[in-house]
Specification:
The protein is of the alpha+beta class and about 575 residues long. It is built from 20 helices and 19 strands. Strands 2, 3, 4, 5 and 8 form a 5-stranded mixed β-sheet that branches. Strands 10-9-19-18-17 form a 5-stranded antiparallel β-sheet, with helices on both faces. A 3-stranded antiparallel β-sheet has the order 1-6-7.
Length: about 575
């Protein structure tokens, strides 16, 4: 072999050795950071740490919405193509056909993330991960649970599967309740399974707690009574709102029909409405006290002012307005006691209609209460430059305008609070706000005194009486609007009132939609329900009865009231 060939081979081998040594040095010393980054990019991943959604409670701390830890199973179809392992054990634990899992793998072959099942118990997820199937992973999440179920569903609302508020206060205060997710770095193997946690980059921040104004004792009681009443009367729907007249806090707000937010498999969208906040109706005779108050403010009338209602009807334009009987000459108080259409019409036509309209507006009718509840309706107040006589009288006794139950409750709370308006609140108030003066205290108390007679013997609302408390309130019965105008056989029955009447603590509004045609008047359908709800609410709040002397006299006269009809020994 020629010497140059030998030298060339030696040179090439030596050069190759040098290149190998240089590459080793380069990899170990010069390119360490680059290679480390490349390795990390293939094995280290950042995962979100879910935040705990804030708890919703009633005013006394009873939980209404809580989050519980769950696990969701997902797959990486790219890692499962051509999988030969039996999927039946996985399908059994997931409670789904193996063919469905195989179809998801095939249909999503280009994707790296597909959910198999959301919100399983941690124990179920642990059993699935123990199968050690390539490409199957789990992630921690939270699921919302509602201990009060349908009783508080309309107010609390619910979240979707991703824990985002969808209805009610869950939606209104979603950002407050949600918190912020954290993140951590994890080491994964070739198949995408987590081997271990490396470090935490950002700590998850839990959502804030939300304390509602409602008292679940009152909420349960009101819901029970409303549901029972609707079942017995075969009514279409109904609402009850109970408000603390001192603070404006809503202590109970219930509707029927309702739904269970924990089980929404057969959810009827019509049952999801918080009717007390979103449904508007003509309030009928329940606004007559405000027309009377406008008359008192005009200076032309006092509670004892006489009004001639003869001959029992009044002709306004082409329409005749009737009373059930001819009441003759009666005072303003009796006009409210008997809910005289003729008396209210004559008073409304005698005073400035704009002053009546302005007073209704002062009491919050025709505008939302500012609670921030999603979908809250404002109702409607007519606005006219020139009022026809029939429009004046219709407006005076509650037609031609629309309100929600909570608006009507706010208006009556002003009367109960001596003319001061406290903002309606669905959240607990830790400090009482300073109310806004709407009317003077003397005239507000005069109207309340007149409303007491409505529930006394001879009034239209005797069904609202409570044995141990005085009650002031007003009945309302209105025709519903149909496709061809007002329907002759469909009504809304309403009662709005307060107790104890001499120093009102609570205000309640009851609205029954399409009660039985045999008992459709406000005094028959709504007033008895008001009595039950208000009596239990006052007892639960330990409000001192103001009719003890009358009760003692009644018991002395009829001992069987407390002995159940049995003779005492």
């Amino acid at each position: 072999m020629p010497a140059w060939r030998f030298s060339l081979v030696v040179f090439l081998l030596a050069g190759l050795a040098v290149l190998l040594i240089w590459r080793v040095v380069s990899l170990q010393l010069l390119e360490t950071r680059f290679l480390q980054n490349q390795g990390d990019a293939r094995t280290i991943r950042t995962q979100n740490i879910p935040a705990y959604r804030g708890v919703i409670t009633d005013r006394n701390g009873e939980p209404l919405a809580v989050s519980t830890p769950v696990a969701s199973i997902w797959i990486n179809p790219k890692h499962m193509q051509g999988l030969v392992q039996d999927l039946k054990p996985l399908a059994k634990l997931l409670e789904m056909p193996a063919a469905s899992i195989q179809k998801k793998i095939i249909d999503n072959r280009e994707r790296g993330f597909v959910y198999l099942r959301r919100h399983m118990s941690p124990e179920q997820a642990k059993a699935i991960m123990a199968l050690k199937i390539k490409g199957v992973n789990n992630q921690q999440e939270y699921k919302r649970y509602y201990p009060a179920a349908e009783v508080a569903a309309h107010l609390v609302g619910f979240t979707n599967i991703d824990d985002r508020g969808q209805e009610g206060l869950e939606l209104a205060y979603d950002e407050w309740l949600r918190g912020s997710e954290g993140s951590k770095r994890v080491l994964k193997d070739l198949h995408g399974s987590v081997i271990r946690d490396i470090d935490q980059q950002r700590e998850a921040e839990s959502g804030k707690e939300l304390t509602l104004s409602i008292d679940m004792r009152l909420q349960y009681m009101a819901y029970r009574e409303l549901k029972s009443m609707l079942q017995s009367s075969k009514a279409k729907a109904g609402s009850v709102v109970v408000v603390d007249s001192y603070t404006g806090e809503v202590l109970a707000m219930v509707n029927q029909p309702s739904y269970n937010p924990n089980n929404r498999n057969r959810l009827n969208p019509a049952h999801m409405r918080n009717r007390a906040m979103t449904d508007v109706f003509e309030p009928g005779s329940t606004v007559k006290p405000f027309t009377v108050l406008a008359a008192l403010e005009s200076g032309k009338y006092k509670p004892t002012t006489l009004v001639d209602t003869n001959p029992g009807y009044i002709r306004v334009g082409k329409k005749s307005l009737l009373d059930p009987v001819n009441y003759g000459v009666i005072d303003v108080t009796k006009i409210l006691t008997k809910s005289s259409q003729v008396g209210i019409s004559k008073m409304a036509l005698d005073i400035d209609e704009q002053s009546t309209w302005e007073l209704f507006g002062r009491f919050g009718l025709g505008r939302d209460v500012g609670s921030g509840f999603p979908g809250e309706r404002a109702g409607q107040m007519p606005s006219r430059a020139n009022w026809r006589p029939i429009e004046i009288v219709n407006f005076a006794f509650g037609y031609g305008l629309s309100v929600t139950p909570v608006q009507l409750a706010q208006a009556y709370a002003v009367l109960a609070n001596g003319g001061l308006m406290q903002p309606i609140s669905l959240l607990r108030k830790d400090q009482q706000e300073q109310g806004v003066r709407i009317v003077n205290t003397h005239q507000a108390k005069q109207v309340v005194a007149m409303l007491k007679t409505v529930t006394e013997k001879g009034g239209t609302g005797t069904g609202a009486q409570i044995a141990t408390y005085t009650v002031a309130g007003k009945t309302g019965t209105v025709h519903k609007v149909g496709s061809n105008g007002y329907a002759d056989d469909k009504y809304r029955a309403i009662f709005a009132g307060m107790a104890p009447a001499d120093n009102p603590r609570l205000v309640a509004v009851v609205m029954i939609d399409e009660p039985s045609i045999e008992m459709y008047h406000g005094g028959e359908a709504a007033a008895p329900l008001f009595s039950k709800v208000m009596a239990d609410a006052l007892r639960l709040l330990d409000v001192t009865p103001d009719k003890l002397s009358e009760l003692k006299e009644a018991v002395a006269a009829k001992p069987e009231l407390v002995t159940g009809g049995r003779k005492s020994a």
